[in-house]
Amino acid sequence: MIRSFLAVPLYALFLGAVACSSGDAPPANAADAPEATADRAPAAASAPAPATGTARIRISGAQTADLEGEAHFAHGEGLTGETVLNLNLTTVEGGVVHIVSVARPGEALPGVGRHPLVGIDTWGEEGTDPGAALASYAYGRGTSAEALAQDIASIIDSGWATGGELTLTRSTADRMTGTLRFRALLDDTAGEVTVEAEFDAPRVAVSVP
After folding, report:
1. How many CB atoms within 10 Å of residue 67?
2. For 127, left (φ over 0), alpha (ψ -120 to 50), or beta?
3. Which of the residues 38, 107, 117, 199 has the least number of beta carbons within 10 Å of its own beta carbon?
4. Cβ 200 vs Cβ 71: under 8 Å
């Protein structure tokens, strides 16, 4: 279960206890933030985003599911002291919480275009794309993603991406839209899953205790 403890982390570790009340307003700075260019996006946020975003998540392989849920992202300093993008897609169905998360350190938000998702075992190695990100999938018993992140005993299984891609069609200070696809090896069952998703994610505020 050690790696299971590290899988929900992309939801909460880098950004600590994110105040994921999606109604939280991001820090206001820019009005009408421009569309990002590839590899760079403005870090300042504009007006408060809508309360929730949307996500469609498909799981195939050792586990199968076709789910609709919510999406949001946060960008700020977390427990590690680094500024990190944390993109989260979550859904609850039949008492089971599903969390798909992407984390990418950097002062600038990733821009429109394709960004590799790399395995945690190769993260930071020489030659790794500096724009690469980590991704994870976890599911467990609960009523919310926040509750599952705080109670790892309720995790049924989880896994890190071994490779994949995040594609952004919109990347502004207050909203990200795009798709992602990655493969992950589940920790407890050793089954491989493919995670595919589309999302429209507003920005939420970051709160680190």
Report:
1. 19
2. left
3. 107
4. yes
- Best CA proximity match to 115, nearest among 20, 186, 38: 38
Q: How many angstroms separate the CA atoms of 81 and 198, rounded?
A: 30
Half-sphere exposure of 14 (CA within 13 A, CB side): 24
Q: In angstroms, rounded to a whole number, what is the distance separating the alpha carbons of residues 209 and 201?
A: 24
- The predicted-structure confidence for 24-35, as pLDDT tens digits, reads as follows 433 333 333 334
Least Cα distance to 144 among 186, 98, 207 occurs for: 98
Q: Tens digit of pLDDT for each residue in 152-204?
A: 788 899 999 999 999 999 999 999 999 999 999 998 888 999 999 999 999 99
CA–chain centroid gap for 34, Å, is 23
- Domain boundaries, given as residue ranges, for the chain: 2-18+53-202
Residue 200 backbone phi and psi in degrees, to 5: -135, 100
Number of Cβ atoms within 10 Å of the Cβ of 95:
9
